[in-house]
Amino acid sequence: MADLDTLPQLLLKNARDMGDQPGMRKKHLGIWKTYSWSDNADQVRALSLGLASVGFGRGDNLGIIGNNLPQLYWAQIAAQCMGGVPVPVYQDAIAKELAFVLQHSEVSVIIAEDQEQVDKILSIRDELPNLKWLIYCDPRGMTDYDEPILKSFADLQTDGRAFDSANSGHFQAEVDKGTTNDVALMCYTSGTTGDPKGVMLSHQNLLYCSRVFIAAEGIQSSDDFLAYLPMAWVGDTAYGLIISLLVGATLNCPEGPSTVMRDLRELGPTGIIAPPAIWEGMLSDLQLKGASSSPLKRKVFQYFSAVARRCEEYKAGGTAVSAGLSFARALGEHIVYGPVRDQLGLRRARWCVTGGAPMGPDTFGFFRGFGVNLKQLYGMTEVGGLATLQPDSAASPDTVGVACPGLEIRIAEDGEVQLKSDGVFTGYFREEEKTAEVMSEDGWYRTGDAGLIDKNGHLVIIDRAKDVGKLGDGTPFAPQFVELKLKFSPYINEAVSFGDGHPFISAMVAIDFENVGKWAEGQALPYTNYMDLSQKPEVVALITDEVRKINQGLPDVSRIKRFVLLTKDLDADDNEITRTRKLRRGFIAEKYGPVIKAFYGGAKDVELRLAVTFEDGSESFVDAHMTIQEAA
């Protein structure tokens, strides 16, 4: 164990050197329970040997499904201790999605959070020929099950302790067999253009990315992080569990998905990573609270928001901020900015990072102006989640930062961004041909993103290469640019823009049901459901006004001419977006083909039958009538 180049080895080192220090916390019934590094190591040892007792070993794959729990993080490391590979899957995935990933990954054991997840697995059991054991963490509701493959987490650990007594050297021997090139994690891609692919990441891949991030942000053992993002997303492991293992920082698991924002405020983490959708949600809430407050508070909020925006514009342009504006900014820190950061749970945060999707400049500028050290990074599952990162002094909405140390970037002749580093994955599981497709002949990973390097050496991502197109007159068209502008509105949750090969830009808009619902209540406007609310004339007028405001800030050629309000939100269950909320553009274009035809055929309305998918995979159909709106 001289070389600490696997995650289990790091865990055992922390148990020796920082045994009494907090390694993990879990909030349950309003109380934070702390697990020291010694506790973590003991739990992992018992669990890994429990897995060995049921036949799990080197070369096997372990399915993990559930919310962020210490037991599920222990399961990740326990699988690695025995030479196996953890395969976390999205806890909100419907049975059909789970069946594909769990069958394709050939998992032999699955560790599930609770009865809900167990029921989903049992419903697809016939499609999982390799499954031998299904382990559940929460025993509530499980007493009446009579399934031979079921075993409780506690019983598995008890079996592991008995196995340890009879095989005292087994645990250490298996850990010592581990090497830095062993596959440590299998994360499935979001599958925007087809079936998800199993990305195999080695210990070296993961440790490279996390070490780079630790060095860039000065992360220490005293730091606290909130583990709330889906475990199936590589960022949860790279920016949470592995950083915790490397420096001894504490990983904190919230009580549940519904309490994340409350737990965030209570914990006040020293750093946080969140996709743009979460920052956009925070901003929408703040905008609505500001709009619904008393006239005095509303004016104060609007004034200091404008001050923050102007300060950020001056900084971005390299212009000195006047003394008067600097004084207003300092005053705003005490009256508005500091209290807002405290309300968001960011009072201790030294750094805040966003990635996984582009962020609109308005959202980015708002948080920077309010004193949040928000920065963008660029990465994807195939490179361990990190390729570029913005320095504190060069944060910008227009770039995704500079290449991380040890990583090379080149722009191909067709504008595609290509990468090379120790973080590049070992390949797609059981898909050598697809692996070869994304690797160049000279060993560079082909990202599929169109980009460029600016004069300061920062990477600029334009859009997915396959999504960049041209309007009918040849004007370049990047749909994400328009969509991000639309999503800055607190009343718009999702947007899909069209224009490639057409004479003008059009868009489908999905309202933010919660925010528009609050607005409707303030207007004494009754409604029954999403479809009813979205088609109310008053709501149509509200969104039309929002689109027209957004158009005013766009070049004439990029302005939206026609749009439609969808009668349902875009949903991952319906294959319209991925679990990480990326648009499945090809599927959307096919499903909503009649809408696109109406946009460019001059029609004033459109009839559409939409399929709605339930958790068990069954479908229902809803007939929708939508009116095309003119935004000009």
Strand order, biggest sheet?
4-3-5-6-7
Give the overall shape.
globular
The fraction of residues assigned to DSSP E strands is 15-25%
**Distance, first to last CA:** 68 Å
Instruction: Figure out the total of helices.
Output: 21
| Alpha carbon gyration radius | 25 Å
Q: Low-confidence segments, ≥5 residues, pLDDT <50?
A: none
Count of strand segments: 29
Arithmetic mean pLDDT: 93
Highest-level CATH class of the largest domain: Alpha Beta
Count of discrete domains: 3
What is the SS-derived class? alpha/beta
CATH architecture of the largest domain: 3-Layer(aba) Sandwich
Name the helicity range: 25-40%
How would a textbook summarize the main sheet? Answer: 5 strands, parallel
Give the structure's gist in a few sentences.
Helix content is 40%, strand content 22%. The protein has 632 residues and is α/β, with parallel strands linked by helices.
Quick tags:
single chain; 632 residues; alpha/beta; Rossmann fold; GMP Synthetase, Chain A, domain 3; 3 domains; five-stranded parallel beta sheet; five-stranded mixed beta sheet; 21 helices; 22% strand; globular
